[in-house]
């Protein structure tokens, strides 16, 4: 229903008191004519096919725009905003320009009125933000990380034209339907920036909810998309190199048909910063349409829906090619990124655990220095223990209690030992371990040679009802901030082999063929053993702080590769064969740190080659988080410019494929069960970061290999929002563990 004020203005216009502004808008008074209103589309700019510059043509200018407040937003920090969109019959008519825009309003629920304006005369100094108000706003055209917007600090309400409108009845709201091609999809979303868009019913979730400081997000695709029509577990988005990708002939097209759904609108509707988007998992179906404004943040265009998603459970990701338990005369080895398994004890040997710590420095490798603030440690011991319990349940129930487990991202701390009073039934909680949290270095009395966080994980596994595990690891494998690789093994099934000073890897003079000087730690005679070396000078000369030439310090590894030599036992405890494990956690971000990660692959290949040169039929398994994709996948297409005359593919794991003497088990997985051949999800699609490479002697014995899909497809924890895990033990890490089962007879 039109307000009296609106009707009065229309009446005045009908009586002939009409003035036409410079942009063609009709005004009912001379006062209004002072506002030279421009179309929101002119602010957003018209995006032609192939455009790459999405900046506003009016950036930095003060303009007047007119539109209806379609939706309010609220982020977890309490910042507010709203979307403003022109009436469907009052736009610029350009399909390539957006008719909506975002107004950031900081912590305020009001916006100032402009001195001398009709709004100031009628409302006083402030206008209260109301969905359904049609306003004339004067503001400076700004941009926040690419999102074209106005800010309440420089925006004023000039006039309130009408109130009480139903926005979705007045503005254009279209169903989200981006094209397959990523570039075309980007242009499509940019042409709708700030506008209301609707996620249609029957849309399918392609990646479980993720949680950030800015809130939560869910990736999805339309139910009528080609990918959604694939059978069973194949009904999802894969990277282009994957055989189940639906867009043929492209490389890394980004699967443009995907879209992300955010919760800035949900939080505003609920009126509380504690709200977060529903805990969706991959394959869930959105059963009711949801509408919201398009907002750009962290290079993602999100539909910030006003109402929470209504979901119907789809296929269970954990049942997609589940792990096979080792049978008689078989053993299994798993690799598991346990995602920042820090305890809540302030490590006296570390300066970068807790708020208030000074930071961590390495005088010999300053590029790896770590400065505050730190956010690794759980907020409470209960939260940390819940993480332990969920991971313990996964190891027992889903990984089938492997004989040996390679871990990544455990805390590099050894200031504790097992409480003598602990038993699996003692219920000691935080007192499972007794610790020296005061003394540092050699003066510390608490250490026992086992990294504390995975040692405690071993105890919780036993408390859960699982087998007894022993934790081992060389703290020299840690990076400066304090995470490391480690090992858990069942003493009933396996043991650490004795090593000699002449051993080609574990001895005092490793025969690792790499062109630079080895670190001092390489001379340690021990098992397990961290191994590292300085980067080649030509790489160091190219190192920068970011991009493809970024380096995490001047050593090959910021987190040293860690080798271990185990033997398997028969039922009588006798040695029935050895296996060499090389546990890895490469530098992150596949499309950055390219030179550095390439050298990491070369060094691991050299470790493996040293073993196989000494023992041609050795069973070697290199695994872990390689943080880049297996062949033929790559962050860079063939011929794509990486830098200068350096073109793709980057082939960062070439050393593993060509010089290690090992074979990629991903190739086995993608042939045996392609719909399950992945270990991670990112921007709505699968990718493989966690990998295993096996020597020929081991490959011949492989019975099964794959990933346990128990994390990447499930919603991430939302402890900051006071929410319990939505799917029990699932979703406790961001990586899916890798497992291999092989004969040991």
Automatic annotation (TrEMBL):
<protein>
    <submittedName>
        <fullName>Putative extracellular nuclease</fullName>
    </submittedName>
</protein>
<dbReference type="InterPro" id="IPR036691">
    <property type="entry name" value="Endo/exonu/phosph_ase_sf"/>
</dbReference>
<keyword id="KW-0732">Signal</keyword>
<dbReference type="InterPro" id="IPR006311">
    <property type="entry name" value="TAT_signal"/>
</dbReference>
<feature type="signal peptide">
    <location>
        <begin position="1"/>
        <end position="28"/>
    </location>
</feature>
């Amino acid at each position: 229903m039109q307000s009296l004020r609106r009707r009065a203005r229309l009446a005045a216009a009908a009586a002939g008191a009409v003035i036409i502004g410079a942009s063609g808008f009709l005004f009912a008074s001379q006062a209004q004519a002072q506002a030279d209103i421009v179309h929101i589309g002119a602010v957003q700019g018209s995006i032609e096919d192939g455009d790459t510059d999405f900046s506003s043509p009016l950036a930095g200018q003060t303009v007047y725009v007119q539109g209806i407040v379609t939706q309010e937003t609220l982020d977890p920090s309490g910042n507010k905003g709203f979307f403003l969109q022109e009436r469907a019959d009052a736009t610029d008519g350009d399909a390539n320009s957006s008719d909506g825009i975002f107004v950031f309003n900081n912590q305020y629920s009001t916006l100032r009125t402009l001195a001398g304006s009709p709004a100031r005369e009628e409302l006083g100094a402030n206008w209260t933000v109301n969905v359904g108000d049609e306003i004339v706003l004067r503001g400076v055209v700004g941009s926040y990380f690419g999102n074209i917007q106005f800010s309440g600090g420089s925006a004023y309400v000039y006039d309130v034209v009408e109130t009480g409108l139903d926005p979705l009845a007045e503005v254009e709201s279209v169903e989200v339907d981006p094209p397959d091609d990523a570039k075309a999809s980007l242009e499509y979303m940019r042409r709708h920036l700030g506008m209301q868009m609707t996620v249609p019913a029957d849309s399918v979730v392609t990646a479980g909810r993720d949680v950030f400081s800015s809130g939560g997000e869910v990736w999805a695709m339309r139910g009528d998309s080609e990918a959604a029509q694939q059978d069973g577990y194949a009904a999802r988005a894969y990277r282009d190199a994957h055989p189940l990708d639906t867009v043929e002939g492209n490389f890394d097209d980004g699967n443009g048909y995907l879209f992300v759904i955010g919760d800035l609108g949900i939080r505003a509707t609920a009126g509380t910063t504690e709200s977060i988007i529903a805990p969706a998992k991959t394959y869930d179906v959105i059963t009711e349409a949801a509408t919201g404004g398009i907002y750009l943040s962290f290079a993602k265009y999100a539909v910030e829906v006003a109402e929470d998603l209504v979901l119907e459970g789809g296929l269970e990701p954990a049942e997609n090619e589940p792990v096979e338990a080792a049978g008689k005369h078989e053993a299994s080895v798993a690799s598991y990124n346990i995602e920042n398994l820090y305890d809540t004890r302030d490590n006296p040997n570390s300066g970068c655990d807790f708020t208030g710590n000074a930071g961590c420095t390495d005088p010999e490798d300053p590029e790896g220095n770590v400065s505050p603030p730190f956010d690794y440690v759980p907020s409470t011991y209960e939260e940390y223990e819940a993480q332990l319990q969920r991971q313990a349940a996964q190891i027992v129930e889903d990984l089938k209690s492997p004989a040996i487990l390679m871990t990544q991202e455990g805390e590099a701390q050894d200031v504790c030992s097992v409480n003598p009073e602990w038993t699996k039934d003692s219920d000691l909680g935080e007192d499972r371990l007794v610790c020296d949290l005061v003394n540092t270095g050699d003066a510390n009395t608490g250490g026992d040679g086992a990294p504390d966080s995975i040692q405690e994980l071993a105890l919780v596994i036993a408390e859960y009802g699982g087998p007894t595990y022993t934790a081992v690891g060389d703290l020299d494998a840690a990076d400066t901030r304090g995470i490391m690789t480690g090992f858990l093994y069942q003493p009933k099934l396996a043991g650490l082999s004795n090593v000699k000073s002449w051993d080609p890897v574990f001895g005092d003079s490793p025969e690792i063929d790499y062109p630079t000087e080895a670190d001092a730690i390489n001379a340690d005679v021990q098992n397990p053993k961290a191994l590292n070396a300085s980067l080649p000078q030509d790489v160091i000369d190219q190192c920068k702080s970011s991009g493809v030439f970024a380096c995490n310090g001047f050593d090959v590894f910021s987190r040293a590769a860690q080798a271990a030599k185990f033997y398997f036992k028969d039922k009588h405890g006798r040695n029935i064969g050895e296996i060499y494990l090389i546990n890895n956690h490469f530098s992150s971000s596949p499309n950055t740190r390219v030179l550095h990660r390439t050298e990491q692959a070369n060094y691991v290949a050299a470790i493996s080659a040293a073993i196989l040169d000494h023992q041609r039929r050795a069973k070697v398994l290199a695994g872990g988080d390689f943080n880049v994709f297996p062949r033929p996948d790559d962050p860079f297409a063939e011929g794509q410019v990486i830098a200068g005359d350096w073109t793709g593919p980057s082939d960062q794991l070439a050393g593993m494929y060509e010089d290690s003497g090992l074979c990629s088990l991903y190739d086995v997985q993608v042939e045996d069960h392609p719909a399950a051949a992945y270990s991670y999800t990112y921007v709505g699609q699968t990718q493989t970061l966690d990998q295993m490479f096996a020597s020929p002697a081991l490959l011949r014995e492989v019975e099964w290999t794959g990933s346990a899909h128990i994390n990447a497809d499930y919603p991430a924890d939302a402890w900051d929002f006071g929410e319990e895990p939505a799917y029990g033990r699932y979703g406790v890490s961001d990586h899916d563990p890798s497992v291999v089962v092989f004969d040991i007879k």
